[in-house]
């Protein structure tokens, strides 16, 4: 080791009290480039070493709080905005139920980013080399001894005086730590062939095995116990009920939230007489109507209501809507046909919301009017 | 094996002023309590329940802390264990403090009314457990058992002072190991009998644990206050250091969180299931002004101590720790008030009657402490763990 340079003088002490005392004395002497090593955290040590509070706590705080905010925001968005579901008659934003999840996410984020922050910011990962690695000193202080290291780059460093100082403090051993500059300054290469090969091998192993497990193994006995449960899934048969259906309909007379039963069941004449379109044909309403019409009606009645859809010939021909019959109908009548269906045209009540059905009616009216425009319409 | 006394320790006597203070508090508190009893017997009885449970928390919680130290083989708490041993003497006193309530059983417990039980299927179903005879048996048995454990554990500990014999530690470990499961059962009975059965239709399976979390906090807080006051006035000499205070604070902090966890668990389950036979207890505390106390409880019992004890310095600095300990004791009082009082009246109340009983309990704790302090060495000088306890470093 010809180019070995001196890194530090490192002393080993026997008890936590001695090392705390030694750290205080070192600060008093004015050394700044020094460090203490112990096999477990010594709570009084930052104080003895005159260290300021670690900044890591702020990382924990910031990420913990963001975790809480993220969890709350996401649950609010899912439960209130995106997919509102009333559960157990509770309000959509149910804070008590959100608290456990918020707590978990807070702790998770705080913990993960504390470790990540420590590794990458403080330890400067992926740099893994340090002058003290693999020294007898490090071996001692990571099992049952306490160590104090004063670095050679300290402005007050003078080998003889430091050695004397450490001896006076009661050090049982003093190590001279040297290092090879080349080794320390060598940066680990990410694209080292062996490392890359390993990555590829891991990917080759993990990818297919995940695929096989998720798509095959889980469906084989005995691993299929979660797939095959003693319960009735939607659409399944059931011997339990006389009619053999696994799915049950709600009790008769059940009314869904926010829904009024259709009052003109089987009474098209009354519907045509009393139902009035409750919304105005604004541009956005017509756009909505067009969207719904194109989606639900055009496959049969054609894009413009001519009855010339691609279904022609494969299905009892759907009539044109431009017949005198339907042109003479009131809005309520068209609404009734969409809601209840008529002969072989099925009901669209469960596919299209009530308000949207009225929008479709407006759009159908617009179609009819476009085809039979009078001169007055042009003005 | 005998070890010589490990440290020189000169016990200082407590000032006589303190004794007078204790008597003044007891006098004033008792006068107010008796007056309250004449003015409004039932209300005084409910106050008595709060006081009784408060004293029980400190007494039995202290005994539990002692047994925990033995079973866990903890050393950090050994130099301060005597404070808990002294406080555990509140157990027999608590038994006495409960006696006036037996005059008002009818006002306190709906299930003592035979006609009401007869007309009520649910109460009838519970009557094999909730009847005055069995209630009395449980009361006597619980306090007798606790007193016996208290007696033997502290006697062994005191005997060790003069002999330093390791044997006593071994005996106490065995006693503690038996005591802990016994404690779990008896403290659950206590919580069910004296708090939950105030509203006999209501039930919560976690209730025993809920009360237990409070007893731990009360016992730790009481011990911490005593330890720090003694330390600040030189009774411990220079024996205690920041490491000891930190550990007390950390344990207290842990139990603050434990309480919040249990309290929230109880609330969440009741809220989620939304069953009328459980929710009425909560809605009672959400009406008539009690809702402010319910909300305040979250702040007083969790938010403030959590923030106040979070920083390392808050646990290491005796002055700050003392303030938090006093606060936690106060929080436990609020907790008990919140548990007990809404049953008495549906709208919130707090008056001079409610002042007398807390005053009385503080006086009792103080006096018990002074009297027991004279009879015990503040440091368990013969305990083989003492040296390691004094050398304890985090």
Key structural traits:
heterodimer; A: 379 residues; alpha+beta; Alpha-Beta Plaits; Cytochrome Bc1 Complex, Chain D, domain 2; 3 domains; 4-stranded antiparallel beta sheet; 14 helices; 4 strands; 7% strand; elongated; B: 394 residues; mainly alpha; 17 helices
Task: Write a structural description.
The complex is a heterodimer of chains A (379) and B (394). A four-stranded antiparallel beta sheet of chain A has the order 2-3-1-4. Chain A has helices spanning 16-29, 45-48, 56-82, 95-122, 136-141, 159-169, 181-185, 193-215, 268-274, 283-301, 324-327, 331-340, 354-371, 375-378; strands at residues 4-13, 34-37, 146-151, 173-180. Chain A has 379 residues and is α+β, with helices and mostly antiparallel strands. Chain A starts with a strand and ends with a helix. Chain A folds into three domains: 6-54 and 126-183, Alpha-Beta Plaits (2-Layer Sandwich), CATH 3.30.70; 56-121, no CATH class; 268-372, Cytochrome Bc1 Complex, Chain D, domain 2, CATH 1.10.760.10. Chain B is mainly alpha-helical. Chain B has one domain. The model of chain B has no long low-confidence stretch (mean pLDDT 93). The chains are: A alpha+beta (379), B mainly alpha (394). The interface between A and B is medium-sized, with 13 and 12 residues.
Describe the structure concisely:
The complex is a heterodimer of chains A (379) and B (394). Chain A is an alpha+beta fold and 379 residues long. Chain A has helices at 16-29, 45-48, 56-82, 95-122, 136-141, 159-169, 181-185, 193-215, 268-274, 283-301, 324-327, 331-340, 354-371, 375-378; strands at residues 4-13, 34-37, 146-151, 173-180.
